Amino acid sequence: MALAMLATLAVVAVILLAVWWSDASPPRTWIFWVEASLLLFFTIFWVLQSMEYWNHGIPDDAAAGAGPAPRRRP
Questions:
Q1: pTM
Q2: For residue 58, what is the DSSP state?
Q3: Which DSSP helix (H) or strand (E) runs through 36?
Q4: In terms of CB atoms within 10 Å, which of 19, 29, 31, 56 comes out highest?
Q5: Long-range contacts of range 57-62, CB-CB < 8 Å, 24 or more positions apart?
């Protein structure tokens, strides 16, 4: 999913450079579609990760660092 997000940002960068170089005006709704696609990719990632954790539990590495650090008394 991270690769899909990076690919989206790369495509947007290429389109913006092409628009800037040609002095054309960008489509009016391009920001909406970029944000919608990134939100979709993040939502898919979140759902897949939640399904994995639901079936297999939180990984030991992540669970070990969860919560605040214990306070030490002098």
A1: 0.52
A2: S
A3: helix 30-56
A4: 19
A5: none
Each of the 74 residues of the chain gets a pLDDT tens digit; together they read 678 778 888 888 888 788 777 877 767 787 788 788 889 888 988 898 888 888 777 766 666 666 666 677 76
Backbone angles phi, psi at 8, to 5 degrees: -60, -45
Domain chopping of the chain, boundaries: 2-57
User: Is the distance from CB of 41 to CB of 5 less than 8 angstroms?
Assistant: yes
Sequence letter at residue 73:
R
Distance CA 57, CA 55 (A): 6
Print burial letters for 14-52: b (CB count within 10 Å at least 16), e (below 16).
eeeeeeeeeeeeeeeeeeeebeebeeebeeeeeeeeeee
